[in-house]
User: Fold these one by one.
Assistant:
Number 1:
Amino acid sequence: MHSKDQICYEDYQQSADWLLSQTQHRPKVAIICGSGLGLLADALKCQDSFKYGDIPGFPQSTVHAIASSVQGHAGRLVFGELKGKTCVCMQGRFHMYEGHSLCKVTFPIRVFKLLGVETLIVTNAAGSLNDTYHCGDIMVIKDHINLPGLAGLNPLNGPNEEKFGPRFPPMSGVYDKHLRRMAFDICKSLGFAQFVQEGVYCMVGGPNFESIAEARLLHRLGVDAVGMSTAPEVLVAGHCGMRVFGLSLITNKVVKSYEDTESVNHESVLEVSKMRSETLQTLVTELVSRMDINNNTA
Ligand SMILES: O=P(O)(O)O[C@@H]1C[C@H](O)[C@@H](CO)O1
Ligand SMILES: Nc1nc2[nH]cnc2c(=O)[nH]1
């Protein structure tokens, strides 16, 4: 590594080579578990798991990541099979507000690319701005607004690594249309359709939740759900040509009225996540099982 924040190709390669030497699994799908949604990883069969701290070059989990994941299982990369398809799951992700640079936040994505991953599934907990949404709804992400990115905070800043992708990558259509349609079909067949939405996710820096004026601004901008993650990971995945699918679990309605006495807190976010964790697990499992991927195990 050159400097504290500069990461070079060899750093990603070192982590990927180490993982390839430690597991026989050769995943084509990577899944990032949002706050409280780490149970997804427990559904993997024939698991090999690695604490982030044990993987050479990997960023380290902070206290937040541990508190917001499944107790005792935070900060792990879990390899295994979902309905016979080989996957790798991040149980606990890295957030910008924890103090990580965006290169660190997105480090695992490029490692996944070098492992041979072709599809990234991202999940997160988010607050809703859309008045028709309810707590516990699942929003299939159609598009995102990357507010830190618009202000110049972008993991792709700096010299471009051509081995991963082009200097100026397009982001229109980054959330795969085919997978979105498939998710809706699955929800219909599983009887989930009444609480599944499709919308625009907005990333803000956090760690504070929105002021009322900020919430009103986001609402006017056409944001359906707001959270503190996902966009940087999706950017980096899109840059290196991965297929992306994203889900937001609506854990709260963002307060938009000065008359409203309710306020959100992280504990209630985790409570709702827990309530819908199993549904999300079922949806993601079914989606992975229907994906047209080569299932390679070495
Ligand atoms: O990792 P995600 O985006 O699910 O985490 C959400 C956003 C904040 O980290 C936290 C707020 O409750 O949950
Ligand atoms: N920024 C933001 N992140 C969240 N994560 C879960 N709920 C929320 C919310 O209301 N706002």
Note: The chain has a mean pLDDT of 92.
Number 2:
Amino acid sequence: MQKLLNRVQAANSLLCVGLDPVGDDAQVARRLGEVVDQTSEYAAAFKPNLAFFLSRENGVQLLRETVQRVPEGIPVILDGKFGDIANTADHYARFAYDIIGADGVTVNPYMGDDAIVPFARPGKLVFALAKTSNKPAHSLQDVALTRGGSLSDCAATIARKLDEAHGGIGLVVGATNAEAVARMRALCPEQWFLVPGVGAQGGDLAATLRAGLRPDGSGLLINTSRALWQAEDAAAAARELVEQMHQLRPMAV
Ligand SMILES: O=c1ccn([C@@H]2O[C@H](COP(=O)(O)O)[C@@H](O)[C@H]2O)c(=O)[nH]1
């Protein structure tokens, strides 16, 4: 997580700029450039969502070009929510890191440890879905296990153990449920959380920071996607979010 920590400190920001491009080809190419260029100053990381690129002709090429446009030193997390047996996961990892040039990925831990380990390369960031931001997530993730705790607790614990073994493994925890953020933080006191749900999904930034920041005032990457894509002035919207975070954080990182 060193590249991420360096960037968080250099930008004094916990903002992850989500890239979920919509529009016709010309609009998307123009807007992607604008959003990346205008928000870079404030971005601790960028998170392109793979689905929004795969749904376009030449989407993989567009994704590569977008990643290349991100200034050196700012991590790019490819949100692919990858999850498959290790042999297949290895190919997803090659795609994300070697073809696209991403610094990190999101993974779905439902298939177990071996679905995650192929992504755990030195210097790479892996965020495992633990407690997601969508409301119906509770139907699976809150299921109580006979051995105690819930399925999301189990995902968090798997991620923590893998982080202890390999390094570079964090969690995805939605900003739409501050109680769940606090629970995940109790289970994983040290790890980085990638936190989507602020903006279009209505997550409460203040409650999320209170629930999830580590004592060092860090450990959260707060993602927002549509709110920046749709903003008239993406730079101003990103700056405003970062300023709100400064006001709400107990201390600078
Ligand atoms: O639990 C999750 C995991 C991933 N996402 C992704 O984050 C962004 C959120 O976009 P907004 O426009 O800010 O709502 C999007 O790419 C999701 O697929 C998530 O929302 N929740």
Note: The chain has one domain: 2-248.
